[in-house]
Specification:
Order of helices and strands: HEEEHHEHEHEHHHHHHEHEH
Structural class: alpha/beta
Strand content: 15-25%
Number of strands: 8
CATH architecture: 3-Layer(aba) Sandwich
Number of domains: 1
CATH superfamily: Alpha/Beta hydrolase fold, catalytic domain
Number of helices: 13
Low-confidence stretches: 4-17
Distance between the termini: 50 Å
CATH class: Alpha Beta
Largest sheet: 8 strands, mixed
CATH topology: Rossmann fold
Strand order of the largest sheet: 1-2-4-3-5-6-7-8
Radius of gyration: 20 Å
Length: 290
């Protein structure tokens, strides 16, 4: 009897393992635009290795000071994706997590480190050549947390022809007023390399800032183009980034841009983002399914 139970246990374990996707960390593509390799991690859904199927793709961006392993190590993306796919709440998809360093996923004002151009012109084409990905807008989504939430909004607004949906968690979207009044040391730490060094007051609202700020893009990009992207914005009630996220929601409402806006209990922390990813994957799946 014990042997029977042991055999059944092994069969159950093998069956459960067969339902799990595979994560590969710290791979890299070469970038001529940046002049250095761009690392990334990738989640391949269960069955990828044994099938010939092509899959939709989610580009999942990390937060400030993290790297391409953030979502796999702290965000438990593989576990969450496995669960959501197994339950039928999410469609099997490839999830790609690039290392954005502290670029805010932008081209810097000097164009010395054009991460944004690299992502659009080199990274996406390389990834979608390497993996069996359905390389059309309707099967491509973008998401992220904090700096990555900012990046996902910015990139989907600037390139609405590329992405069908955007899920932004605790987006690092700040109002102009917040940036103008920011302490010099804080501004220089987070923004000076990207938007302009040694700036103070209204000078901080530089052309590169306006070119990338979601609160400016929402007015500068034609509304009809923005409406081709499904937006999901989620920011906790205790998050210090509540102002920019709230303002973006208000402006989207005023402009008639359809979107989902969530304020849940929580702050700027991994438990909030892990719990949010479940609903985010369901939202993205709805777009993939049409």
């Amino acid at each position: 009897m014990r042997k029977l139970f042991f055999v059944l246990f092994l069969l159950f374990s093998v069956s459960a393992m067969a339902q799990n996707g595979v994560v590969k960390e710290s791979l890299a593509i070469e970038s001529k635009l940046l002049g250095y390799p761009v690392k990334y991690s990738v989640y391949l859904p269960a069955g990828y290795e044994s099938s010939q199927r092509s899959y939709p793709v989610l580009y999942l961006l990390h937060g400030y000071s993290d790297d391409e392993t953030g979502w796999t190590q702290f965000g438990e993306v593989a576990h969450i994706a496995d669960q959501q796919i197994a339950s039928g709440n999410a469609t099997p998809m490839i999830i790609v997590m690039p290392d954005g360093k502290v670029t805010w996923y932008c081209n810097d004002y000097k164009m010395a480190n054009p991460w944004e151009d690299m992502f659009v012109k080199e990274f996406i084409p390389a990834i979608e050549k390497t993996y069996r990905i359905r390389g059309k807008k309707e099967f491509r989504a973008i998401s992220g947390l904090s700096m990555g939430g900012y990046g996902s909004l910015m990139l989907s607004m600037r390139y609405p022809e590329l992405f069908s949906s955007c899920v932004a968690f605790s987006s690092g979207t700040m109002t102009d007023e917040e940036v103008i009044s920011m302490d010099d040391s804080r501004y220089n730490m987070f923004f000076s390399e990207i938007f302009g060094k040694n700036l103070s007051g209204e000078a901080r609202i530089s052309e590169n800032w306006k070119t990338h700020s979601p609160l400016h893009l929402i007015h500068d990009i034609p509304t009809e183009k923005l409406k081709t992207v499904r937006f999901y914005i989620d920011c906790g009630d205790d998050d210090f980034l509540y102002k920019g996220n709230s303002q973006l929601h208000i402006q989207m409402r005023d402009l008639g841009i359809p979107h989902e806006y969530r304020v849940r209990q929580g702050g700027h922390e991994w438990p909030y983002w892990r719990s949010g990813l479940e609903e985010g994957l369901r939202f993205i799946t709805q777009t993939f399914h049409r």
